Amino acid sequence: MDILAIQLVNGLSYGLLLFMITSGLSLIFGIMGVLNLAHGSLYMVGAYLALGITKHVAPSFFAALLLAPLLVALFSVILEVGLLRPTYRLGHLSQVLLTFGLAYVVHDLVRWIWGSSVQSLSIPASLGSSVELFGQTFPIYRLAVMGFGLIVAAAMWFFQEKTRWGAIIRAGLSNREMVGGLGINITVVFTVVFAIGGLLAGIGGVAAAPILGLFPGMEFEVLILALVILVVGGLGSITGTLAASMIIGVVDTFGKVMFPQLSLMIIFGLMALVLIVKPTGLLGKQVN
Amino acid sequence: MESQKIKTGSLAAVLLLCLVPFLSSDYFTGIMAEILIFGIFAASLNLLVGYTGLVSLGHAAFFGVGAYTSSLVAIHLSANLFVSLISGLLVSLVAAGIVGFFCNRVSGFYFLMLTLAFSQMIYALVYRWGSLTGGDNGLSGVPKPTLAGGVALDSSSSLYFLILILFVLVMAGLRLFVRSPLGQILVGIRENETRMKSMGYNTTFYKNVSFVLAGGIGGIAGALYSYFNGFVSPKDIYWTMSGEVLIMVLIGGAGTLLGPVFGAAFIVILETIISSYTDLWMLIVGTTFILFVIFIPKGIVGLESVWRKSAKARAPVQTESPESVS
Q1: Is the residue at A162 inside a domain?
Q2: CA gap B219, B70 in Å, rounded
Q3: pLDDT-above-70 percentage for chain A
Q4: A116: domain CATH number?
Q5: pTM here?
Q6: Would you list the DSSP string of A205-246?
Q7: Residue A90, min C-alpha distance to chain B (Å)
Q8: B286, A102: Cβ pair inside 8 Å?
Q9: N or C terminus: which one in chain B shows less Cβ crowding within 10 Å?
């Protein structure tokens, strides 16, 4: 029973981490039509930047949590303006391939700068202890990640549903040309969306670093899970992404504990099942 | 006329390839063998990407399944070439049938994501099933294939000829296939699937056929690679292998028969040269790939037509149409 509750917390916090990463991917895919295969790389860059910041700039996890995502967002803006923007006329496939090449480049750059050994970011002292709830002990950091993930989800919801920028983004999701026709500068929207995606990936990277560790290759593990979540949750639905993230997080965590040989198989089996029953994903809209 | 030219050209190329083991060192023969293996592998993916219009990022799954199956058969059952090669082919055909059934339910980017996900699933299976596959260490000590009389193909030139024969068979078969009515249906799906559907073709069925065929040929390439190396590593089935072969196809030129082979040659030679200087291989291949995507989207084969155009432009006497002068 103890293990069950602790694993549930682990699974939910993992799911919320995956949500932070996948929501950016989903946003970029939905609005720009770019399947950003370098999204995992942005996540990895965020984690490694946090490591660099705590080591060399300010030895505080919270400074890194604030700074690293902003730097990743800046990096994303540079990528979008410098590399992606000139390729929009070439069609969507070339952008996917471009981001794929980018994932290769970033992978080696990170390995070059930080080395290929596994490193870890230490949990901040204020969140390092455990807390007793309902007669069980839980690590505070996991609970904090859960709370933080829920806050990010709520902020995303508020931003998309209640603000003017959110309205533009939702409009862009359903009809990009019309938004441009209404006098909104779609080029700027693209850049902003890509930056938000980068910001979310960076936040995910920093928050995940103390739990999952840092190593070159971490980006692809997360990218593949994020792609699975995108397929399971369905496109264009924040709620769908959130639900799918939680399910995948919990299933993956329990799978690893109970059937370590088959953990990935279970996830992909789940995805196959969803695709057979409902090809558009749990809560997805029809996308063409 | 044109087909006569192609016949003479390919005959000359095959003859030239036959001379390689006699005229060059074992080292160079090995590089040529690797190029031919990856040429087969890239050509198989090209059937999907180039001819059917399905961009798969999980093709290494079948390469790996072919490699692991034929090595396991060679180690535990029989080192006979036909037994191990055909079992590798059959298992990869079955794997492609299963994966294709799921992946062809969706299209576009969903297809790309699903192929990636399924190939990683097969990778995870191989990686975790350590008792059978050796897990992280891979399978070593794969015996060299033997022929019916117990003759082992253990010299580098005999293996090279085995690979060359299969390469020629696969390329000739693919040439026949893409010109057959079935191949033309696949091209039709690439160009306009809705239209093919409305003409009464069951496009999902044909996409599955293409997927299974590509997976089978990929499995043959994997089996050859395991004979060639004498071992199989889980890297052969990892997504980086899928990425590399996709890069070969696109750098070479998707949708052309020889483009992917050129792409394979380009990448193998680049890797051979670079690996003696630096281990930042992914950085260099990624940058090369990005440059190709932006500046030469048609690939190496596309360069030839660009060159032809500019040659025509330089020599306006030969052509009278003003359009060709750019």
Answers
A1: yes
A2: 9
A3: 95
A4: 1.10.3470
A5: 0.84
A6: HHHHHHHH-B-TTHHHHHHHHHHHHHHHH-TT-HHHHHHHHH
A7: 8
A8: yes
A9: N
